[in-house]
Amino acid sequence: MPLTRSKPKTKKHLSDNDYQMEQSLISSANLQAFFETLLQSGRIVVAPVLKQSGKVFFQPVQAYSEVATDYIQTAFSAKSVVFPKVETLFSFVRKDGEITLTDSLNRIPETVVWGLRPCDAAGFDYLTEFFLRENPDSYFKTRKEHTTLITFGCKEADNACFCTSVGLNPGNTTGSDILMTFMNEECYVEIMTEKGQQAVALAPSLFKASEVRQKDAFLAKPATRFSIDEIKDKIKHAYASAEWKQVSLGCFSCGACAFACPTCTCFDIQDEGTQDKGVRLRCWDACGFGMFTRHSSGHNPKNNQTERRRQRLMHKFNYSVDNLGIVSCVGCGRCIRVCPAHLNIFENILSVTKD
Amino acid sequence: MEVKNSYIPYQVRIADKTEEAPMVQTYRLEFVNPSDATAFSFKAGQFAEYGVFGEGESTFCIASPPTREGYVECTFRSSGRVTKALANCEINDIIGFRGPFGNTFPIEQWYGKNIVIITGGIGLPPLRCVIWNILDQREKFGNLTIYYGAKSVADLVYKKELQEWKERNDVNLYLTVDPGGETPDWKDHIGFVPTILEQNLPSSHNAIAIVAGPPILIKLGMPILGKCGFANNTIYTTLENRMKCGVGKCGHCTVGKTYVCKDGPVFTYEEILNMPPEY
C-alpha cells in the first residue's frame, strides 16, 4: 500500500510514477555492502563527507569509510548533482571563420546520491517541477534521469529544522527513490521508484521483504513553527508589509542562503575562454545580489536589500505556490545555519504575515 | 519526452551594420544555415539573446518586422562586455542568436483600429518592429500616431526612417528632444515625451496605445493615456528587465511571480497594475 504523501498537492507531480512502492529491510551491517555494490556498479556515488571545518558536504566518494553518518544536515544540499554550481552548456571553437559548437549533454554519468535527508529529496521534487513543467531544461532532465536518490530519515533535528512547518516530515518519501529509516539494528527500506528498485536489484540478497511499518517512533520531532495553510493565505497580502525592512536589515547580500538552499534555481550565463575557443557556462546566481536585476542603464527594479529579501521569501512561499502549486521551501534550515547575519527564514515569515 | 536544448544558439552572419546614434548600432543578421532560416519565424514583440562566443549573451528585441523575411535586425547600445564585443564585430562575422522568446503584440486584433505609439530613446526598436508591421499592411489599420523623443538630436535612432515617416501623410509623427538636447536647426518639439504627449493628447476613439522606453516613461505615460479615455486593456507596453535564459528559469527578469521573458515582455496596463512595480 503506497504511503500517503504528506504534501498537499493540486496536480500530479512530474516525478510521480506508477511504480507500486515496496518495503524491505536491510541490516545496518549490510548497508556498507550495499554501498560498495553501488560503487562497484560503476555509478558515481555522492555522499556526505565530514570536512576539517567540522561541516559535512556532499561529494563523490570512493569508499564507505569516507561517508559521514553522524550529522543532522549537510552544509549544502545535493542539488548540485542535477544543477551544478558551474555547468558547461556547450563548448565552441572558431576556425577559418566557422564556428563549431559541442553540446556537453552526452557526458552525464549515472549517479547515486546517498544519505540525503527527506527535506532534500522533496527539494528534488520541486526542482523537477520547476525545470521540467514548462520549457523543459535538457541539462536538468538528463542529469535527473541519471540520478538515484537514497535518502535517510532523520533521527535528530536541530533548532533550524522546520520541515513539519512546510508540510513535510522527517520520514516523508517525496522525491526519494529509496528512503531508509533506521530502526534499532536494522534499516527499514521504502523503495519508491523503478530506479530505486534497480539499485536494490544490484544486491538483492542483502534485503529481505518486510511488512509496512510505522516509522514515527524512530524519527526526529522538529518544532513546528507555523501552519503552512495559514501562511500561504496570509502571505498573499504581505508584499506591502512594513516588516520587510526589519527582516532584511542585517542582510549582507552574500548569497550564502541561496547557495546552500536545495530549491534555489537562479543562475547566470557566462562565457569563458577567448573568442576562438571556449565554453558557455551557467553558474548559480542569487536574487540577493545587487547586480542580479540591474539594467544596463543603471536602473535597478529591486534596488535595495529589503526588496531582494522580499523577493526571496515571497518566491518560496507565494510565487511558486501560484506558479507551480508548491511551497518552494522544504524547511531544511540551511539558510538559517549559514547566514552570517543570523537571519531566520521562519521568524521572518512569521513577522511579515503577522496581523 | 523529447526536449529541445534552448541554450544552443543559431549561428547568424552580420549582413549589415548601421550607426544609429552615439554607441547605438543596428545589425542585420542572416542565418548561416539555410534550414535554420526556413524553420525560424517570429512575431512582433518577441526578443532574442544575441551572443559573441567567448564574451556572452545580451538580450534585445527583434527590431525588424515579421513582414520582412530572410533576416532579423537588432538595435543595441554598447554598455558592457557583451555589447562592446558585439559592437566590435564586423560585417560577415558570425554571432550566436537564441530565440524568438516571449509573447507578442496582438497585431491581428488591432486591424481597423487607430494606433498610438509613445516611446523614447532606444525604446523605439521594439516598436519599430510594430510600426513597419503596420506600414507593410497599411490598409488594415486606421490612423498611426507616433510620439518619439530622445535626450538629444544625436540620440534619436533610425533617423532616416523618422524622416520617411515624417514625410508620409499616413503617419502622424511627434518628434521631440529633451530640453537642451536640441540643435540650432531643430524644428520639432522640445520637451520630455510625457510633456509633449500631454500637450497633444491622442484620441482614444477606436484606438489602442503602446508605450515603450525607459521605466520612467512607462510609469508616467500609461496614466496619461488612461486620462485620455484609453481603457487599461487597450494600453500596451513591453518590459525589458535583465534576462539571461529567455525561458523562465534563470530568475533575473521576475516582476513578482511574473517572468517577463515567458509571460511577457508584452503586457497591458491592466496587467501592469496587478504587478508590483519591479521593472
Describe, in plain words, how this protein is organized in 3D.
The complex is a heterodimer of chains A (355) and B (279). Chain A has 355 residues and is α+β, with helices and mostly antiparallel strands. Chain A has helices at residues 28-40, 118-132, 138-145, 194-200, 228-234, 243-248, 256-260, 305-324, 334-338, 345-353, and strands at residues 22-27, 44-50, 56-60, 86-95, 98-103, 111-116, 147-152, 178-183, 186-191, 207-209, 267-273, 277-284. Chain A has one domain (22-353). In chain A, strands 3-2-6-7-8-9-1-10 form an eight-stranded mixed beta sheet. Chain B is of the alpha/beta class and 279 residues long. In chain B, strand 8 (144-150), helix 4 and strand 9 form a beta-alpha-beta unit.
In short:
The complex is a heterodimer of chains A (355) and B (279). Chain A has 355 residues and is α+β, with helices and mostly antiparallel strands.
Topology record:
The complex is a heterodimer of chains A (355) and B (279).
Chain A: E1 22-27, H1 28-40, E2 44-50, E3 56-60, E4 86-95, E5 98-103, E6 111-116, H2 118-132, H3 138-145, E7 147-152, E8 178-183, E9 186-191, H4 194-200, E10 207-209, H5 228-234, H6 243-248, H7 256-260, E11 267-273, E12 277-284, H8 305-324, H9 334-338, H10 345-353
Parallel strand pairs in A: 2-6, 6-7, 7-8
Antiparallel strand pairs in A: 1-9, 1-10, 2-3, 4-5, 4-12, 8-9, 11-12
Chain B: E1 10-21, E2 24-31, H1 34-39, E3 47-52, E4 56-61, E5 72-77, H2 81-87, E6 94-101, E7 114-120, H3 124-135, E8 144-150, H4 159-167, E9 172-177, E10 189-190, H5 193-199, E11 207-212, H6 215-227, E12 235-238, E13 254-255, E14 258-259, H7 260-263, E15 266-268, H8 269-273
Parallel strand pairs in B: 7-8, 7-11, 8-9, 9-10, 11-12
Antiparallel strand pairs in B: 1-2, 1-6, 2-5, 3-4, 3-6, 12-15, 13-14
Helix pairs in contact in B: 5-6
Order of helices and strands of chain A: EHEEEEEHHEEEHEHHHEEHHH
- Average pLDDT over all residues of chain A: 92
Radius of gyration based on Cα positions of chain A: 21 Å
Mean pLDDT across residues of chain B: 95
Number of helices of chain A: 10
Share in helix of chain B: 10-25%
Largest interface, with counts of residues having CB < 8 Å to the other chain, equals:
A-B, 55 and 45 residues
DSSP E strands of chain A, number: 12
Strand order of the largest sheet of chain B: 10-9-8-7-11-12-15
Portion of residues in helices of chain A?
Answer: 25-40%
What's the tally of helices of chain B?
A: 8
CATH homologous superfamily placement of the largest domain in chain B? Nucleotide-binding domain of ferredoxin-NADP reductase (FNR) module
Q: What count of domains describes the coordinates of chain A?
A: 1
- Strand share of the residues of chain A? 15-25%
CATH topology of the largest domain in chain B: Rossmann fold
Strand % of chain B is 25-35%
Q: Supply the helix-strand structural class of chain A.
A: alpha+beta
